[in-house]
Write a structure and sequence with these properties.
186 residues, mainly alpha, globular
């Protein structure tokens, strides 16, 4: 049961990540395997570090949950708004370079891994094995990032601006979800 529980926790924590990488992929004009790997590894590393810090920090980190939720919300909101604004720009592919920026990639990796930080803190009190759970989490995030970005790119090429706008809206909705969870509303 511990293996199944660890896997389900990992899969659940990687779903926000999947939504964000699909949205990011929608905005890309070109599909660069190197960029896809870079984003996937960065997101996996962020989740590994955040979950580990949360797990090791335990109960102490629960006090910062609302602040982390606001930070994630603002990052996702700003990037989502930027995507929507650029979708209406007269330049074709104005958002395409947005996700080439390491700064944007790091911001998204941190924003999507905030849940992992607090999940780790909560799970520190459970009987889930740390190493097994963090390895499942890292693998799930790596896989969902890689294939989510690719799927988003294919959707963006096929459906164009509408998908880019949808991607921006999805980023903002994920931000709202993280904020509501962090404030204990959802």
């Amino acid at each position: 049961m511990n293996i199944l529980s660890s896997f389900l926790v990992a899969l659940g924590l990687s779903m926000d990540n999947l939504a964000v990488t699909v949205s990011a992929g929608c905005a890309q004009c070109k599909d660069h395997a190197a960029l896809r790997w870079q984003i996937s590894l960065l997101f996996a590393l962020a989740h590994f570090v955040m979950f580990s810090a949360g797990f090791k920090g335990g109960e102490l980190l629960h006090t910062g949950r609302a602040a982390g939720a606001w930070i994630s919300f603002l990052i996702l909101l700003l990037i989502g708004l930027h995507m929507i604004k650029n979708a209406f720009s007269p330049q074709t592919g104005a958002t395409a370079g947005l996700f080439d920026s390491l700064r944007t990639q790091v911001a998204l990796a941190v924003a999507t891994s905030m849940d992992a930080l607090f999940a780790g803190a909560g799970l520190a009190l459970s009987h889930l094995p740390f190493l097994q759970t963090v390895l499942f989490l890292t693998a799930c995030v790596l896989i969902t990032s890689f294939f989510g970005f690719k799927a988003g790119h294919l959707l963006g090429r096929k459906f164009g601006t509408g998908v880019e706008i949808s991607g921006g809206v999805v980023l903002m909705l994920v931000g709202v979800k993280v904020l509501l969870e962090g404030l204990g509303i959802w």
